[in-house]
Automatic annotation (TrEMBL):
Natural source organism: Bacillus spongiae
Limits of the PAC domain: 318-368
Positions of transmembrane segments: 6-24, 33-57, 63-87, 108-132, 152-171, 183-203, 209-227
Domain GGDEF: 400-536
Listed name of the protein: EAL domain-containing protein
Length: 800
């Protein structure tokens, strides 16, 4: 039974060694300690076998005793190996020390080689000669080894153990790491005591019991030392973890970003100070609560959760932009990086949010500016195109009608050019305000107004029938009947409106916009201040206009333009005293295009400026040539458009053309229309005075059809009034026309102005005009407009 007890004791170091392996996580250090305790177990097994008399034969005990002798023999190199591992935990300690020649891997290997030699010697009779049976009184019998002539190997091994202990003790006090130094010291101390006790086994009277005590000292001391060191390591680790936790908590709290973590149920398990401040709460208050618990505006939160419900997945990394309401009730925008962190049994969603409210405001401002007109604040062309496409998609799905209206301000360009862009901007703002107020009408809840550029506005009307579109257009016309107060003065401006209907006038945005523009063009041609719904017949007219514009751009280069001259007769002398230069255009594709058709297009496109310069140059050159040929000098009249007159360099250009032609300016008359009265008087008067300074005369053409007023006739430096042909036609049979003509002539005479009657087609009209003291006449009664060649042969040669 004593054998079994000793054998049981032998396994205690082994199991404690396994515990150390688990405790110290199978490091090289723990493996060395396990080896040390395993060898201690072998030593105890070796000793316990000597008590196995009743279990094994003498020969078996002898064999097993020699086999397990490796335990006590290899303790010496293993002790040195453990010291070597501990000391090498501080590599800088041995780096520049002479001790590195002792505590190195080579010496460890030599120690183990020596141990193997001693172990091998133990298998020979010179090492262990025999096992002697010992029978003490009142004690268990056991075998005691008798050593042979090589027993000094064993004694020397003990000596090496002592030397190793001494060397390690010396080095122990030099180790900088206090934990390692303490462990090695107590390990050496307990090992010295244990080994010292174990050496007493050389005396038979001890009955081999010292080795048992020695092994227990080894096992318990090593285990306790490891346990103590483990507790210290764990304590240090926990302390460092607490320090790191405090540090990280401080860093997270100091971070201006919003940091939080939620569990799978959406409850907060971590928040930093910034995030808690966002909700006006303490961090501790938020732990365990959900977004619904901390949000002030519950309704907005439910809406937000509904929107994000399908988007948020705790298992995926997301970087969404989110809207929330802070404790003050203000909307804040956050861009959150959401990272799932897997734990053993659950997943935590870590969120790091950056406040992007200002950026969102800036983005919204950029989007607003990109989609709205800077001057008026109305939606612009870009937004109009987007919303028109959206409206048509909706109308197509629901099968409802819609209307697109193009609104253009009549004569705005002239006002803008004359009174200045600042005035024009103020006028556009006032028009925009009035249009906005117009849309506040309950009947226009499905309408939206846009400014698409210049003086052009559009109106989108969803779920709008043709009758409703007409009603809206009529209301818009009425809207402009009241004047606009600009800088204390009242100004009147009228709209022209083109309307296209979905789906009859087009099923896509491009077609509807094109057709509304075509309808607008027809309003402009018809006299403005009205509206027009698109019809298919308009396309042909619009196409011709586009073709005229296209061909007119190259008319000068192709030399398709020419001048005809219509004679002007002095009523008192019945002599031709002048002529009016009239522009004609013959195009290969279009044929003869009437001036009434192409001149307004030239005005609208700006082509009238180069064409008008060519007309003046040609007329002056032709008149100078006729005078050089000896014909009687005559005055040539040239029509000047308002577009030319508003050109800042027109006076200079006109003076240059006249000078180059060598024609005396007294033989040149510029005809302007009554429309000059609608522009800034100071600007127009100065321009006319500058033209007069060249030496030319000025006539007012088509008098009586526009802005006739005694006030401007007194102001403007006009020499002649030309009565419009509409008053001359039928003057002998219409009393109203007679009265108008007599009044104009009487007024002109009182203002010391000459009078010319246009469109005289009969002898009766001629005689009547002579009777009422008209100065000059022109028309078919005298001659139709003639080419330069025919005018020379038919008129000039007769006058000469």
């Amino acid at each position: 039974m004593f054998f079994l007890f000793l054998l049981f004791v032998a396994f205690i170091p082994f199991f404690l060694g396994l515990s150390i392996l688990v405790m110290v996580k199978r490091s090289m250090f723990s493996k060395a300690l396990f080896l040390f305790l395993l060898l201690a177990s072998f030593w105890q097994i070796d000793v316990s076998l000597l008590y196995a008399i009743h279990y094994f034969s003498r020969e078996t005990i002898d064999f097993l005793f020699r086999l397990f002798r490796i335990g006590p023999i290899m303790l010496t190199p293993t002790l040195f190996f453990i010291a070597y591992i501990i000391i090498n935990e501080e590599p800088s300690f041995l780096q520049n020390s002479k001790w590195r020649y002792i505590m190195n891997k080579t010496n460890v290997i030599l120690f183990y080689l020596w141990g193997m030699i001693v172990y091998i010697v133990g298998w020979s009779d010179q090492g262990i000669f025999t096992l002697t049976l010992m029978e003490p009184e009142e004690a268990y019998r056991f075998y005691f080894p008798s050593y042979g002539s090589l027993s000094w190997f064993f004694h020397f091994n003990v000596l090496l153990f002592m030397i190793s202990i001494m060397v390690c003790f010396i080095l122990c006090f030099r180790i900088p790491n206090s934990s390692l130094r303490s462990f090695l010291f107590y390990f050496l101390f307990s090992t010295t005591i244990g080994y010292g006790l174990g050496v007493l086994n050389i005396f038979p009277n001890t009955r081999l019991l010292p080795s048992t005590i020695s092994v227990m000292v080894f096992a318990l001391s090593v285990f306790l030392l490891c346990y103590k060191m483990h507790l210290k390591v764990v304590g240090d680790m926990n302390r460092r973890l607490d320090e790191q936790k405090d540090f990280l908590s401080t860093v997270i709290d100091l971070n201006p970003n919003y940091i939080y973590a939620k569990d799978e149920e959406g409850r907060y398990c971590l928040v930093n100070r910034s995030y808690a401040d966002l909700y006006g709460m303490r961090k501790e208050e938020m732990i365990g609560k959900t977004d619904s618990d901390v949000q002030v505006n519950k309704v907005r939160e439910r809406e937000r959760v509904t929107v994000l419900k399908d988007k948020e997945d705790i298992t995926k990394r997301l970087i969404p932009e989110e809207e929330l309401i802070n404790h003050e009730g203000n909307v804040r925008w956050l861009q959150t990086s959401k990272v799932p962190i897997k734990r053993r049994e659950s997943t935590v969603l870590l969120g790091v949010s950056t406040d992007i409210t200002e950026r969102k405001k800036h983005e919204d401002e950029i989007i607003y500016q990109a989609n709205h007109d800077v001057l008026t604040g109305l939606p612009n062309r870009r937004l109009f195109n987007e919303q028109l496409t959206t409206l048509l998609q909706k109308a197509s799905r629901k099968h409802i009608p819609a209307a697109v209206m193009f609104i253009d301000l009549d004569r705005f360009k002239y006002i803008n050019d004359t009174l200045g862009h600042d005035f024009g901007d103020l006028l556009l703002r006032e028009v925009s305000k009035r249009l906005k107020r117009f849309l506040t009408n309950d009947r226009l809840i499905n309408s939206q107004v846009y400014r698409i550029g210049g003086d052009e506005f559009t109106l989108l009307n969803s779920n709008c029938t043709k009758q409703e579109a007409i009603r809206i257009a009529e209301l818009l016309i009425q809207l402009f009947e009241e004047g606009f107060i600009i800088e204390g003065q009242e100004f009147f401006i009228t709209p022209s409106i083109g309307v296209s209907m979905y789906p009859e006038d087009g099923k896509d945005a491009k077609a509807l916009m094109k057709n509304a523009d075509t309808a607008l063009y027809h309003v402009k041609e018809r006299g403005k201040n009205s509206y027009q719904l698109f019809s298919n017949e308009m396309n042909q007219h619009f196409y011709r206009k586009m073709l005229i514009e296209k061909e007119l751009r190259n008319a000068l280069e192709r030399k398709e333009l020419c001048l005809n001259y219509q004679p002007l007769v002095n009523v008192k002398t019945n002599q031709v005293t002048g002529m009016e230069a009239l522009l004609r255009w013959n195009n290969k594709m279009l044929g003869d295009v009437p001036p009434a058709e192409f001149i307004p297009i030239a005005e609208e496109t700006g082509l009238i400026i180069p064409i008008g310069e060519w007309v003046l140059q040609t007329a002056c050159k032709q008149n100078a040539q006729w005078q050089c040929m000896g014909y009687s000098p005559m005055k040539v009249s040239v029509n000047i458009s308002m577009r030319q007159l508003l050109d800042k360099s027109f006076v200079k250009k006109a003076a240059t053309v006249i000078e180059l032609s060598t024609l005396d300016p007294v033989y040149i008359d510029f005809e302007v229309t009554e429309s000059v009265a609608m522009y800034e008087p100071g600007v127009i008067i100065k321009k006319l005075v500058d033209l007069k300074s060249i030496g030319i005369t000025l006539s007012m053409d088509d008098f009586g059809t526009g802005y006739s007023s005694l006030s401007y006739l007194k102001k403007y430096p006009i020499d002649t009034l030309k009565i419009d042909r509409s008053f001359i036609r039928g003057v002998t049979s219409h009393e109203d026309n007679k009265a108008i003509v007599r009044s104009i002539i009487s007024m002109a005479k009182h203002l010391h102005l000459n009078v010319t009657a246009e469109g005289v087609e009969g002898k009766e009209e001629y005689r009547y005009l002579s009777k009422v003291n008209c100065d000059y006449v022109q028309g078919y009664a005298i001659s139709r407009p003639l080419t330069a060649e025919k005018f020379e042969h038919s008129i000039l040669k007769k006058v000469r």
